[in-house]
């Protein structure tokens, strides 16, 4: 595996990864779409494919902190409807990684993120969303959940970029801020843990990557605490705008690299 070890990373590269790890914690407890910036930083410092294996344990650490913070706000009916479709997406993403090179991965994920952001903006301008996330109980809602679930599973397996896809779904389904964070916290903890055997089987996680994770995980905690402090100071409209903006920025970064 072509993963850099801690000793092969320069001081400024480690600082960039540490800042990205802090942003992982922040994104898990405040603005989910901001995680695409961390993805871009890791892929810029490390080989793109290998970076997904290094980032995954840090994401799980952030997920644990987010679950501890927002566990009472999760909407489990939505989660149960999403998981089967996500499993299909994870398997498809694993097969995709067997043959896809870094360039194909970046372009594919970047296009998906931008399309999802565009669709969400369009849908939110067309109609007001309900204050409670009950859209998934309709036939159209179930179809939408499955579509986003497959895309979320695929993108999270290929590049740990499932956050923006699921953010777009949860916003379009009418989730308020705390329900959004609680539902996404459990969703990504379960999905990211389930991804570990696949990533290890592809050689994306090994002793070297875990050593780097051990040095970076300490930066996830202050990021999560900062996010917990900030989320109570962000109103709903600004929260949604930040999630969409972070998704667009992440998609553009992937396409331009």
Low-pLDDT regions: 129-135
The N- to C-terminal Cα distance equals 22 Å
Order of helices and strands: HHHHHHHHHHH
Helical content (DSSP H or I, runs of 4+)? over 70%
| Biggest sheet architecture | none
- Give the DSSP E fraction (strand runs of 2 or more residues): under 5%
CA gyration radius, whole angstroms: 17 Å
Number of helices: 11
Q: Could you say which overall geometry the principal axes of the C-alpha atoms support?
A: globular
The total beta strand count reads 0
In terms of structural class, how would the helical and strand content be classed? mainly alpha
Provide the residue-averaged pLDDT: 81
Provide a compact summary of the structure.
The chain has 257 residues and is mainly alpha-helical. It is built from eleven helices and no strands. The relative contact order is 0.23.
